[in-house]
Amino acid sequence: MEQNKFEFTKDASFDGTMNMGMDTGCCQEMQMPSQTMMCPPIQECPQERVCHRYMCYEVPHIMPCNTRIINHHVYRHTYTPCFTTCEENVVSNVYDRKCCF
Hints:
Layout (H helix, E strand, L loop, with lengths): L101
């Protein structure tokens, strides 16, 4: 296995590769307290944030509605008897038998 090499200087800068030199011990305390160490950036795994957005739409629907009115005409027939009377006169002529007549 190939070992990565990295040399620290007072103005150490990262050259864009992953050669960090683990054998030198990155970010260890140096002997001289006045010097500050710079470690190269560590590439982390990407994280993903998920944002669910809901878009609400109003969709108008035209629904024709017809009202049909049916008029029912009901005729109730009633009967009132109207009694009438009539009178009839019959005339009869009776003749006696008389001989001279």
